[in-house]
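3.2 Worked example (two chains)
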Amino acid sequence: MVALLKPAYRAEPSFEDVLARYPRFPRLVALKIDVQRRGVHYTERAEKAVDPARHQLRSPYIFGSRDGAIKPLPESLLLRDGGTILVDPTPLAQDPYVVDYEDGRFVLLDDGRAVEEIDLWPKPAYYDKLTTSGIKMSLLVTARPQRLNVFQSSYCQFWVDDKGCKFCDIVTHTKQQRDEIGVPNRLRPEDIAEVIAEALKEPGRFSNICLTSGSVVKGPEVFDQEVDFYIELLQAIGTNFKTRRFPSQLIASAFNERQLARLYENTGLTSYTSDLEVFTADKFDWICPGKAKWVGYAGWRDRLIGAVDIFGRGNVGTCIVAGAELAKPYGFANEDEAIKADLEEAEYLAERGVTTVSIVWVPRPGSAFHDQVNASLDYYIRLAQGLQDLRARYGLSVDFDDYRRCGNHPDSDLARLQ
């Protein structure tokens, strides 16, 4: 066992003490939340046990990590129940969990005590291959548990006039990835179609394709050029399928009904997500000034609801960066107020056929909120259960964001239990 001094980062109840308040909440889902919330540090022994030939290492991603570095560390941790923890390498000073390797297995430590045995994702076979244009395939299409990720571009035009979302580091991380590992600025549809074809040769590995990027405001109407980019990519990807529609999710800007109709009619896209990021107009205006400038909170929400008429009830979603609404100095005064507001807005959307999921907010060094601290484990457990209860009440599916396809939403892990 590796003994590490536990830094004084914040005073809070232990994991077991918090979980004791919620005896019906699944322990492994709560652990996933807490590990995402606090991050991980890999011991030297654990790093040596990682096998690049077998294990999936951190691949190009749309956001950076807590340590601000790009290192060949594991992409994700795998839990005994099949759940995954997409988690950032984190400086020890921030009190992360520790990943160690002992007796031929990876273990998760908290305060020097082993709390869970874990494993690492197996690397997809296509990761080691090149496209015919000579680009490493893992730089173009990355993998989640059963999902292929296509990040069309990691540049967001909201940053042009300093109006990027305050929790986000998309542009600073884009430059880092381009400079350090050679990620292309823009993807070519023919390259993406080739990588998808290669990935689909792995039987049973992948069941969904997800596209996302930063917002592009250019065009005759705001976001027209962004829509053009996605149509081009989706049409190229669609050449790999015999059916007109294929299992797919687009996470994009809040498109108007004309733009959404173009996407639906001209591609095989089956689900659409546009992230409000934080609920309530005043928090949205402060934290997401670019989204507020170009569409506004009410407009963004209305466009989500309008998308239900095109993609169908349960095939439209939004995500919130849970905990960011508590940021200082203008966030909610306490976690009770935040949860009440979040669940009220989530219910408003659920009544109208829009699914809400959450991610655990990670204060990243390249973001405006780099020096903040995220919410408590108690907050995240209550929010996760509340969001799942709403989906159950309103009969909404979360298939395109479940633990198999995405793996990044603790609340959606609960869907398979109810």
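3.2.1 Second chain
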Amino acid sequence: MKQNIDHFINALKYQKNFSEHTLIAYEHDLNEFSKFFENISVQSIQKSDMRCYITALTKQHLEITSIRRKISAIRSFFKYLIKENICSHNPCTGLILPKLKKRIPEFIDVSSLDGYLNGDVDLNNFTSVRNTLIIDILYQTGIRRNELAQLKWSDIDMYNLNIKVLGKRNKERMVPFSLVLKHSLENYLQILKEKKLFQDYVLLNEKGKKLSGYQIYYIVKKELNKITTQSNKYPHILRHTFATHLLNNGADINAVKELLGHSNLKATEIYTHNNIEHLKKIYKQAHPRSGDTQ
């Protein structure tokens, strides 16, 4: 099975353009799966075997999200095996998975981000300028950290103020940005040229090497410590914030869906819960009889 897993991971990497983070997670999950079924051929695994596997995962007291992610990886693996004529069936089809609890995405309030982005930045400090720019791009565009890591200067249209983003499954989308972000990009670009660091990719380290998704993760985590006291400090919270602020200010949900690069509206609808809470707050502040509401 190990060889099949290696071929599958390579297919995801070179044909599907999966992120580095996702590839590592898939490989880890599939190697665990392979170890559990080490005495059974991949062709003979049945749905009943998968139910036993889910039970075993549950007994490890894993988060439901982790269990569902593992099964999703295995399901995709079997789809690949069927396509390659290695297996004739997918034992994950029709499996009943543990149900997720609905969570409202966390987001950062506008004033906290404005305070950070409008603060003084030492234009002679490459790291400071770059790190502020990272936060600004993620918040203003809602792109994923790995999409940001792959961003090239050729993807940025300074005249029309939009960015071409290569998302999941090699799906391209155009995302607009503001004049303020344009000026920030131009300042950063000037510093790159002065330091003779300029190359195709936008985000670089002090030696002119491209930043990885993981490096961006840790930079964002460090910068968010200056912005918020929330416990969850990760790049995706800026994507949540982007979507929530748009919807709270009246943006059409279908437009937000396109900006985020979601394939279906259901993925975008999770942000409407935050919008409803925002509307409740306005209602309680403005309606004369709001004191009667629970």
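3.3 Remarks
The first helix runs from residue 2 to 14.
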